[in-house]
Amino acid sequence: MTVPTPTTNAPHPAAPVSLAPPPRRSGKRTRRVRGIIFLKDVAVLALTAFGGPQAHLAMFFRLLVDKRRYISAAELLELQALCALLPGPTSTQTITVIGFRLGGPNLAYLTLLVWVAPAAALMTLAGLTLSHLDPARVAALVQFVQPVAVGFVAFSAYRIAEKVIHTKTAVGLMVAAAMLAYFFQLPWMLPLLLLAGGAVTTVRYRKHTIVQEKKPLRVEWANFVLWLGILVGAAVLGHYTRLLPVRLFENFYRNGSLVFGGGQVLAPLLYAEFVEFKHYLTGPEFLSGLGLVQALPGPNFSFAAYIGALAMRPAGGTGMQVVGALVGTVGIFLPGTLLIFFVIRFWDRLRQYRVVQASLEGINAVSAGLVCAATFLLYHPLPDRLLALPFHLGPIDTLPLNPLLVGTTFLLLLWEKVPGVVIIGLALLAGALLS
């Protein structure tokens, strides 16, 4: 009997995916209800997505892909990779573009507001009550959330690899990307790996089906022109008016336009500008806020609200500090939003070309490798904790707590019976009881 030999390196055929806003086929009421449900899910994520952009991706995968099926796993990775190639907060851009995909610009802007508002409000409150804030107390409250977040990332790496890795080439790219991202933690490494992965699989573009009736590629420049106009206009206006809110906006907008790699890369830039150069806040104040934002759910870029509130102290009054927080929040998030809105409007037509379709296999494989690397990178900084056993197993009377929490979280997610919100809630409750 002859056993057919499987082809190991042929690209896995995938159905074409559209990232443009959906056509208006369903009724207005149906679209509104679906948008409200999506915004509720975004609010849940904004309140429970701890751990930075890698953990955010894991939460997006579990809620938006596995549970709600708003988009597919391949779409989510494609969007995340596209956002990672642009400056700005990657997880914020990703969830905003998902809103754009489901309901157009209006839902996208509401998604951005719901996702950013909780973290920005908490960081504003931290700036207003700095003298009464105890960072050690906050750290104790979330001490068990951090290893649980690593468990989410590990599970996300497993599920993503399961769905998008289909060839030996993809396996090789995933492993190589994970190793390079782990050993070379540089801001430009992530976009470089994504581009390199796409270039590797581009050579097999002839194996992809030709789209016979391509829609013409049309680039709408409005958002790019607006991004550039605000960048130049804020600099000129700040120089001539010398108004502190205007200058703060320019500072945050410029940093948000230039930073790749997320909040970890943004922090040293903000420290150099606002602490060392302009002396708007002290080093200890900066570090207290940085530690707090790492312990809160939502985007790490909300740190700008804290800095903005403290920078406006010379203007006097709580009202001016709130203005500073709003200026910081808008300034840091606006450029990345404008840039992703510029790109997403022509990306759907650009990906019709076989070269672009072939590159997505490599980009998705690299994305999976980056999530694998993030699992270990997020685990290493966790403080060592030991769990005392009520009995002795020979010389063993304690067990390492962090691996137990990571492994238990992974198994609970694999079981698919316990919602992620419940797991996070239990971790917070344990921190509150034991702190």
Automatic annotation (TrEMBL):
It is a multi-pass membrane protein. Keywords: Cell membrane, Membrane, Transmembrane, Transmembrane helix. It is found in: Cell membrane. The keyword Secreted does not apply. Residues 1-28 are annotated as: Disordered. Residues 1-16 have a biased composition (Low complexity). It comes from the Bacteria. The keyword Transmembrane applies. Its main location: membrane. The chain crosses the membrane at residues 33-52, 107-128, 140-161, 173-200, 221-240, 252-274, 286-311, 323-347, 359-379, 410-434. Belongs to the chromate ion transporter (CHR) (TC 2.A.51) family. This is Chromate transporter.
